[in-house]
Amino acid sequence: MTTLPKAELHVHLEGTLEPEDMMRFAARNGLELPWRSPDELRAAYAFTGLENFLSVYFQGCRVLRTRADFHDLTTAYLHRAAAQGVRRAEMLFGPQAFLDHGVPIDDQLGGITDAIDEARESRDIEGALLVSAHRHRTEADALELLDLVRPWRDRILGVGLGSAERGNPPSKFARYFAAARGEGYRTTCHAGEEGPASYVREALDVCQVERIDHGYAAAEVPDLVTRLAEEQVTLTMCPLSNLRLHVTDDLTEYPLKALMDAGVPVTVNSDDPSYFGGYVNENYAAVTDALGLTEAEVKTLARNSFTGSFAQPEELRGVL
Ligand code: ES4
Ligand code: ZN
């Protein structure tokens, strides 16, 4: 598992911020945090659900201020991922929180893309950037974000949509996804994490996204499962995240294997590894254990991660 080549398709860069680094960045930027030690911070990681998690996560985002912070965050993740056999990482990143704190977009994306370029050389890992809008904000904000990142168009592979799901259906962002598609971005949308299966349908029908982040709720709806299989829509599932946010309370009943058996291209990912107690391999291990996956099934998951990625076919030569 450790060295099995794989892609990670659903990881939020901000969610890779380890407690020690959060403390270090706060100190070097002269910022106060509500927690005085990494252990005190870890104690705050007993989440009741997505919104409760997001409030801690957005507090953590406050410490990231300089180009060096974004660079160091990205480097730390890419090095860890490479050590776990990740050859390609499609990383979600939400600039809006940092724009609120006055961090220029060029410092954010400059730090991240420098780290991507360095890790390609030093660790043989391909990092790709997916800019993610916050669904608790307005669609006008999301469209403004597209305008703001346009100078970085050639360094951004795609766009996504995250943050508080309930009450913020994908259809609220129909024009955002249409505009993104018009600019040639690849598209993915969080749906069916805490929200209902109908949000998965909306993401596909109204927003026409290519991939679904989570998609957990779809598993309960047989005709939707059939459709995901027929249309080969990749789901980027995140078992430890779903456990820690009480989307599921028992991984032995996690629908990953049932979806795989039904022909849906499912993948295993970490979401916010520093907050949810594991990087990608810990997520593979958790489902392998809980669901008794065979070696062949684990290999299928790894293969799905490449075929479900937004890589060009020629980029996958040598890994598939
Ligand atoms: C999320 Cl915006 C965002 N960041 C990290 N994890 C998430 N889960 C849902 N939305
Ligand atoms: Zn996510």
From TrEMBL:
It comes from the Bacteria. GO terms for molecular function: adenine deaminase activity; zinc ion binding. InterPro entries: A_deaminase_dom, ADE, Ado/ade_deaminase, Metal_Hydrolase. GO terms for biological process: adenine catabolic process; hypoxanthine salvage; nucleotide metabolic process. The record marks 214 as: Important for catalytic activity. The active site is at residue 193. Keywords: Hydrolase, Metal-binding, Nucleotide metabolism, Zinc. Its EC number is 3.5.4.2. Binds 1 zinc ion per subunit. GO terms for cellular component: cytosol. Residues 5-320 form the Adenosine deaminase domain. This is Adenine deaminase. It comes from Amycolatopsis bartoniae. The gene is add.
